[in-house]
Design brief:
Length: 327
């Protein structure tokens, strides 16, 4: 894997590494503790896909808008969301980011621009277009980003939203995390062509394909389209080709289901976005092994604190059942 870091500051490189490492370590901790059956919510882990969230969100500010999907832990973390509140939400606690009512698939932290996640496939796409329209009407220099999988491209709302965004030249970035499977259904069985990044060409919306396991490539592509959106040049589509190491939902492998081969998984694991970027930082004298170990310890301490906070937090009271809801 080639990393072109020319022109990218050491500060940015180290921030990208820490974000990816944090996402990976959080997901591994969730996987470790999930069998205890204290997290009463389905979890969709993004182990293997860390570079997409990190590379895109590193180009955003807290004033921008981010919308996620059912596999949203990485997006939440990459935006700078409160980790204690996220983990508490997995435990359905009152201190959770959705006050224990949303679970893993409905994460939100408005303080960093993450306005919400949707468990509906493709559900966040039109909402991102809507906030981009609002920012345009109010003359605010804000960008909206929608994260969705290749399954989201099967939905009609994807094309409807692209059309509307193109028509109004909205500052919205559509980011497809193409991990090649919608649950157990391969992309090749659902889509005639492997060309997601070209789906908006007929609307004159530029599309880009990035190696979703290469955080620098994702960062550069996202930097370009975010800057274009801020300049009033309208929407863009990014297809980040990546791979989830775990099953569609829950901890552990799903290879036994037979819809993908162990050899395929092994090939993608060799292209680990976290490990390979870590090796690059060491090779380019950006970090020493000792400094890497310190970052690991700091991240692990933050994660341990978050889980302790979540486990010690109270459950919602019965009289809170209908509060904070849209009627």
């Amino acid at each position: 894997m080639m990393f072109d870091i020319e022109g990218i500051s050491k500060e940015v490189l180290l921030r990208l590494y820490r974000i990816m490492l944090k996402i990976r370590q959080v997901e591994l901790k969730i996987e470790e503790l999930y069998p205890q059956d204290e997290m009463k919510t389905p979890v969709h882990l993004c182990i293997g896909q860390e570079a997409v969230a990190a590379g895109v969100c590193a180009n955003l500010t807290v004033d921008d808008y981010v919308f996620s999907n059912h596999r949203g832990h990485g997006h939440y973390i990459a935006t700078g969301g409160d980790l204690k509140a996220m983990i508490a939400e997995l435990y359905c606690k009152r201190t959770g980011c959705s006050k224990g009512k949303g679970g893993s698939m409905h994460l939100v932290d408005t303080s960093v621009g993450l306005l919400g996640s949707s468990s509906i496939v493709g559900g966040c796409i039109p909402i991102a277009a809507g906030t981009a329209l609002g920012a345009t009407l109010q003359k605010e220099n804000k960008v909206s980003v929608a994260f969705f999988g290749d399954g989201g491209v099967d939905e009609g709302v994807f094309y409807e939203s692209l059309n509307f965004a193109a028509l109004k030249r909205l500052p919205v970035i559509f980011v497809c995390e193409n991990n090649f499977y919608a649950v157990c259904s391969p992309q090749s069985k659902r889509q005639l062509k492997d060309d997601i990044h070209r789906r908006a060409e007929c609307l004159s919306v530029p599309g880009y394909r990035a190696d979703g396991n290469n955080v620098i490539e994702v960062y550069r592509v996202a930097n370009n389209v975010v800057n274009n959106a801020r300049k009033g040049n309208g929407p863009s589509l990014i297809e980040c080709r990546t791979y989830r190491w775990r099953g569609h939902v829950g901890p552990g492998s799903d290879i036994k289901l037979g819809y993908r081969a162990q050899q395929e998984l092994d090939k993608w694991m060799e292209r680990c976005p976290v490990r390979n970027f870590e090796l690059l930082l060491i090779d380019r004298d950006m970090m020493t092994r000792e400094e890497i170990d310190i970052v690991h310890q700091e991240v692990q301490k933050e994660i341990e604190d978050a889980f302790e906070f979540a486990q010690a937090s109270p459950l919602p009271d019965e009289d809170e059942l209908f509060t904070d809801l849209y009627q």
